[in-house]
Automatic annotation (TrEMBL):
The keyword Magnesium applies. Its EC number is 3.1.3.11. GO terms for molecular function: fructose 1,6-bisphosphate 1-phosphatase activity; metal ion binding. Homotetramer. NCBIfam families: PRK09293.1-1, PRK09293.1-3. Keywords: Carbohydrate metabolism, Cytoplasm, Hydrolase, Magnesium, Metal-binding. Transmembrane segments: none annotated. This is Fructose-1,6-bisphosphatase. GO terms for biological process: fructose 1,6-bisphosphate metabolic process; fructose 6-phosphate metabolic process; fructose metabolic process; gluconeogenesis; sucrose biosynthetic process.
Length: 342
């Protein structure tokens, strides 16, 4: 067998990678975060399996519908939510859970209480589920404040206080992308081993890209800075215009942006006054990852990670991606007041 065909015997799995980070941090690290991340990675394997066989076992469709046997069907995002809640509670490492699927935060009972809070969107990109397009899970993790028993106040904090964040994209393979505040790493699920393997170490967003990713169907509602910026990249005075790519699944659009560069945007506009994306479990985790990969994440008016949330489901405008591309957009915000309807 030629030497390049010999399989590696030193594979770096997610657990090994996170544990080695924790060991490096020495006595301050208790391994709790590693166990929590292991619980999240397990839920994602379970969700990935269900996403893959959704058609076969009637998981697509609306929750509340009944199948031919008269049994109630569980919509894929409701099922994913249940999987996450059960696993995170059972991990014994969480105190507060916030899910896009649940109106109220869950405060974990004393028996299972740990010191981390997880905010998550169990299955983002729901409009793409039935078409088999990439969807994903997004999560952010806070540590409870000193002396707190775990209340909603532990998650109503700026994104800059998160200790870890990431997403799992369910596509032709499952990809887990994670930051614990020291760069961004990407792992791919090896279905045979049932393990996430480090395949994209130290992801860095190219400083400039050639792709823009906005839902331009909303153009008639956009404010002038966004209009003017989009015009500048579609009708450049020098060089070629940018390419448009918009999947409509934030996880997939952000994943491409991290790897290829460019800009992803979901602005506030005349119709959606504060944008569409949710601050806690969509904007914050993606902003944390973007900054850790060397990019910029902004609302147009300021850094996303600096926002102090007042409610768990609030929304915010999002622009993120390559440093130079987002800086170009921000120049248009400086020229025209943010919410000018001119
Ligand atoms: P969801 O949480 O209901 O799935 O909505 C969030 C999704 C994001 O994944 C995506 O970026 C955005 O909504 C797409 O919205 P639109 O269809 O308005 O372009
Ligand atoms: Mg969502």
């Amino acid at each position: 067998m030629a030497s390049e065909e010999v399989p590696s015997t030193n594979i770096i799995t997610l657990t090994r990678h996170v544990l080695s980070d924790q060991l490096r941090l020495g006595s301050a690290a208790t391994g709790d975060l590693s166990l929590l991340l292991t619980a999240i990675s397990f839920t994602s394997k379970f969700i990935a399996t269900n996403v893959r066989k959704a058609r076969l076992i009637n998981l697509v469709g609306l929750a509340g519908e009944t199948n031919v046997q008269g049994e109630e069907q569980k919509k894929l995002d409701v099922l994913s939510n249940d999987i996450m809640i059960n696993s995170l509670r059972a991990s014994g490492k969480t105190a507060v859970l916030v899910s896009e699927e649940l109106e109220e935060a869950i405060i974990i009972d004393d028996l299972h209480k740990g010191k981390y809070c997880v905010v998550f969107d169990p299955l983002d990109g729901s409009s793409n589920i039935d078409a088999g397009v990439n969807i994903g899970t997004i999560f952010g993790i806070y540590k409870i404040r000193d002396g707190s028993a775990g209340t909603i106040k532990d998650v109503l904090r700026p994104g800059s206080e998160m200790v870890a964040a990431g997403y799992i994209m369910y596509g032709s393979s499952a990809n887990l992308v994670l930051t614990t505040g020291e760069g961004v790493n990407g792992y791919t699920l090896d279905a045979a081993l049932g393990e996430y393997i480090l395949t994209h170490p130290n992801i860095q967003i190219p400083p400039r890209g050639k792709i823009y990713s906005f839902n331009e169907g909303n153009s008639m509602y956009f404010h002038p800075p966004v209009h003017n910026y989009l015009k500048s990249i579609k009708y450049p005075t020098r060089g070629a215009p940018y390419s448009a790519r918009y999947i409509g699944s934030m996880v997939a659009d952000v994943h491409r942006t991290l790897l290829y560069g460019g800009i992803f945007g979901y602005p506030d506009d005349k119709k959606s006054k504060t944008g569409k994306l949710r601050l806690l479990y969509e904007a914050f985790p993606m902003a944390f990852l973007t900054e850790q990969a060397g990019g910029i994440a902004t609302t147009g008016a300021g850094r996303i990670l600096d926002i102090l949330p007042t409610t768990i489901h609030e929304r915010c405008p999002v622009f993120l991606g390559s440093r130079d591309d987002v800086s170009d957009l921000l120049k248009f915000y400086k020229e025209v007041p943010t919410n000018s309807t001119a």
